[in-house]
Amino acid sequence: MSQNFDVVVIGAGPGGYVAAIRCAQLGLKTAIVEREFLGGVCLNVGCIPSKAMISATHFLHRAEHDAAAMGIEFSKISVNMKKLQEWKTSVCDRMSAGVGQLLKGNQVQVLRGEATFLQPQLLQVESKEGSQQLSAKNFILATGSRPIQIPGFEFDEKTVLSSTGALALDKIPKSLAVIGGGYIGLEIGSFMAKLGTEVTVIEATDSILNGVVDPECAQVVARKLQKNKIKVITKALAKSYKKSGSGVDISVDVQGQIQQIAAEKILVTVGRRPNSDQCGLAKIGLAIDAKGFVQTNAQRRTSIPHIFAIGDLVGQPMLAHKASHEGVLVAEVIAGHNRAYDVKTVPAVVFTDPEIASAGMLESEARSKGLDIMVSKFPFAANGRAVSLMETDGFVKMIAEKKSHVLLGVHIVGPEASNLISEAALAIEMGARLEDLALTIHPHPTLGETMMEAAEATLGHAIHVIQKPLKV
Ligand SMILES: Cc1cc2nc3c(=O)[nH]c(=O)nc-3n(C[C@H](O)[C@H](O)[C@H](O)COP(=O)(O)OP(=O)(O)OC[C@H]3O[C@@H](n4cnc5c(N)ncnc54)[C@H](O)[C@@H]3O)c2cc1C
């Protein structure tokens, strides 16, 4: 006998749990199946624990490097790594428990176990307690992704770590080699360096964050990595490693020359792959593309019409807020609303020091599309709040269409870029012009004023930088 639902959601990450809550709000009888933790990668081994570690080590770094200049002196600062881990875990547990309460409060049935399709309408859920079958009118696949392994560097979570292992370290390693200079590797490498670990980043291409962020923003972060004593080796391929004493020696091909890099631990962050090879998806014949993403249409309907898929499982950008947006969208489609995935931008943040945040087009993208654009930057060094925070590295860069002044892209590197970017996302979604930002009164003294001044700078008349008059 199987239990019957209107909707069964598989996976309780930021895609799945949001979809389940929205389905229940819309009056659909909903169940969610999760094999590990409520909140998925994001709340347990991804966004939240990494940001908790970043916040803690930001405090530490500021206390060590900036406080004395403000007249605040400490006799001794030390890190209790075990306590730091306990605090980080308490943050994750609190968030995960909150998801449980929200699901319960919305009458979503939570089923623990591994879900596998037996037939397109029938799901088997296996757990230690036994197995049960569920049938539903609609299914939402939100099974996420996992870290990619590279040959010769298989994760053992002792010497060769994935992001999950690195976020759980309860001793500070003396040294860490990070393979992959993307956002996850740089975020973890940066907070480990602030804890005192000697960090070396091995990156295959010629720059960090290659192709994903504005290159000028990446340069600001690259300089700060250097200042924070993080070594970055570009055009370098990690080939193999062997144990040496209590650590490892890694053979790295740097433009044809083999170099040895010694480290206590290795962190491999070369990307994530969708979990489309699990859950019996091949057995029911679901269409999957060459990169392993489940194929969907703009309503996130798969090749089997009553099965929807969202989040990391369906493609880039593999970000939590994109997954949640799709979760709401799919629930509303199932409830009969006229919805489709139709966004102008998915803002993205890299929580390095300083942070990088972007919304809309890159300058190179706008130029390659042949658009006639105007581009300008406003520096944080000219903003009073940034100066009083002693966080003046970086700028807000704006790209607008020359004739209409419609905002096309915003790229921020600097303090609180993560919080500033939402204004840009809203402006781009609403088709705002530079004047809309420039003529909106922004409170003083705030970092937000840099958004107004960057718009003014693009129009040629920012107050707090000296500009040549521009004919606009
Ligand atoms: C270290 C790190 C830092 C990150 N930082 C950020 C950030 O700052 N901002 C951001 O937007 N994104 C960040 N991400 C990415 C973000 O975590 C993912 O984009 C997001 O979690 C994807 O959500 P999802 O719902 O698609 O899947 P997931 O969060 O991966 O959840 C999928 C869930 O499905 C469950 N599941 C899978 N298969 C089955 C099955 N067969 N049966 C039952 N359950 C199953 C899994 O156990 C999991 O709980 C980070 C990721 C990592 C690793």
Description:
- With 472 residues, the protein is of the alpha/beta class.
- 31% of the residues lie in helices and 26% in strands.
- The protein has 13 helices and 22 strands.
- The N and C termini lie far apart (71 Å).
- Flavin-adenine dinucleotide is lined by residues 10-16, 33-37, 40-42, 46-47, 50, 114-115, 142-145, 163, 184, 275, 278-279, 311-313, 318-321, 323, 351.
Question: Notable features of this structure?
Answer:
472 residues; alpha/beta; 5-stranded parallel sheet; globular; binds flavin-adenine dinucleotide
Structural class category: alpha/beta
Give the overall silhouette. Answer: globular
Overall pLDDT metric: 97
Question: What helical percentage do the residues reach?
Answer: 25-40%
Instruction: Report the radius of gyration as a whole number of Å.
Output: 24 Å
Largest sheet: 7 strands, mixed
List low-pLDDT spans. Answer: none
> Which ions, cofactors or small ligands are bound in this entry?
flavin-adenine dinucleotide
Q: What percentage of the residues does DSSP assign to strands (E)?
A: 25-35%
Instruction: State the separation between the terminal residues, measured CA to CA.
Output: 71 Å
Number of strands: 22
Our count of helices gives: 13
List the helices and strands and how they pair.
Layout: E1 2-10, H1 16-25, E2 30-34, H2 40-45, H3 47-65, H4 81-105, E3 109-112, E4 114-119, E5 122-127, E6 130-141, E7 145-147, E8 160-161, H5 163-167, E9 175-179, H6 183-194, E10 198-202, H7 215-227, E11 231-233, E12 236-244, E13 247-254, E14 257-263, E15 265-268, E16 272-274, E17 307-309, H8 320-334, E18 348-350, E19 355-360, H9 363-368, E20 373-379, H10 384-388, E21 395-401, E22 407-414, H11 417-429, H12 434-438, H13 449-459
Parallel strand pairs: 1-2, 1-6, 2-3, 6-17, 8-15, 9-10, 9-15, 10-11
Antiparallel strand pairs: 4-5, 5-6, 7-16, 12-13, 13-14, 18-19, 19-22, 20-21, 21-22
Bound molecules: flavin-adenine dinucleotide (FAD).
Flavin-adenine dinucleotide binds next to strand 2, helix 2, helix 3, strand 4 and helix 8.
